[in-house]
Structure formats: structure tokens, C-alpha cells
Amino acid sequence: DSGVTQTPKHLITATGQRVTLRCSPRSGDLSVYWYQQSLDQGLQFLIQYYNGEERAKGNILERFSAQQFPDLHSELNLSSLELGDSALYFCASSVTGDPGNTIYFGEGSWLTVV
Amino acid sequence: AQKVTQAQTEISVVEKEDVTLDCVYETRDTTYYLFWYKQPPSGELVFLIRRNSFDEQNEISGRYSWNFQKSTSSFNFTITASQVVDSAVYFCALFNTGNQFYFGTGTSLTVIP
């Protein structure tokens, strides 16, 4: 158990819909990361937050957005869903978000778009 | 350009054999960090090791060992006396000072009893 909690674990939704994935970081961690793992793209970094502010942005689509709240939990919003968005979405956290920190991953949220 | 290459897509070994998973990286940064993660069939990513670019000492943790060589930009992972529970996908990753995390495509290891 990494200490990073993600909900829901599994989600099935239809194309065009919107979903929200939630992440609670490890206790004491201020930085949160989101990743997408799909069959064709591998593991892709989406976005990073530190203490409520966006710190780094990766290959995140405009249809996707995220935020980190004052209590440090984070949400990833996926809208206008397409079949290709079906993937395992990971949240991870680290203490300060600096490169030297170890990043711990949650168990992931499986999203299936039908 | 930053890049992580895991050339071995799939490896199968018989239990108790040793196996080495290769990882080659590219970066122009002088300060960077290398990671290995294990992804068992259940899907979660489990942290195995972190290495910074200034520490080339090899590390051993039980049956796991890592060989970091800056001269060849490699960070290879060896499992000694493999066990069925080692069956998983293993990811090598590079984290640079731009706060970007680059993953390899993973090596799927199957340990046959």
C-alpha cells in the first residue's frame, strides 16, 4: 500500500460523457501527478500540481483538466470522452515534487469508454 | 531529447534463473533521477528504486540489484533466483530537472514455475 488513494477503481461510461477521477496523496505529500497508461501510448505523464498550483504539464488533452484542492486532494476531469480515452489513470504523489523525491503511485482508476 | 528505452518487450525465464532487464536513457541534463517500477497483474505501480545521476554505486536489495553506468547511459535491473511472484511488467523511468517524468515502454517478465 503506497498510501495514495484513488477512486473509483473501475468506471465504465459512454462516449461523450464526462467523468471525474479523485486522488488523495500520501499523508505529508504536497505534490500530485496524473498519468495515463494505455495500450498504444504506454505510460504518459499528464500534469503535476504542487500545493494547489500547477507545476508541470505533459501530454494532457484540452478535454482533460485537473486541479488540486486546499486539502491537497486532486481531481482529474475527463470530458467529451472518446473510445481512445479508455485507459488506466494513475495518480502519484511526492513530498515536494522536486526531481529528487520518490514518487509513489496509487492503484489506478480503470476507465472504459464504450 | 529525453528518452527511455527498454528494448526487451517480453522475457520468459524458468523459476530460479537470473534475469536482467535493460534500460537505456537519453538526457542532456547533468542532474537527473532514474527509477524502476514494478507493475504486477493487478495494475498498480510499485516503486523499486531511485538513483540520482551523481551516484553510480550499484545497489543490491535482496534478490534485486541495479547496475547504473553513466558511460553507457544504462540502468539495468537484475533479479537473481527469479520467483513466480516476480512476474510483472517493469518500467524504467527518467525524471529530469524540468519536472518531467519519462517512462520506458516496459518489459513484461514471466517467470515459469
Note down, in words, how this protein is organized.
- Chain A has 114 residues and is mainly beta.
- Chain A is built from no helices and 11 strands.
- Chain A has strands spanning 5-7, 10-13, 19-24, 31-38, 42-50, 53-57, 64-68, 74-78, 87-94, 104-105, 109-113.
- In chain A, the strands form 2 sheets. In chain A, strands 2, 4, 5, 6, 9, 10 and 11 form a 7-stranded mixed β-sheet that branches.
- Chain A is globular, with a radius of gyration of 13 Å.
- The N and C termini of chain A lie far apart (31 Å).
- Chain B has 113 residues and is mostly beta strands.
- Chain B has strands spanning 3-5, 10-14, 19-21, 24-26, 32-39, 46-52, 59-61, 64-69, 74-79, 88-96, 101-103, 107-112.
- In chain B, strands 2, 5, 6, 10, 11 and 12 form a 6-stranded mixed β-sheet that branches. Chain B has a 4-stranded antiparallel β-sheet with strand order 3-9-8-7, with no helix packed on it. In chain B, strands 1-4 form a two-stranded antiparallel ribbon.
- Chain B is globular and about 40 Å long.
- Chain B starts with a strand and ends with a strand.
- The mean pLDDT of chain B is 91.
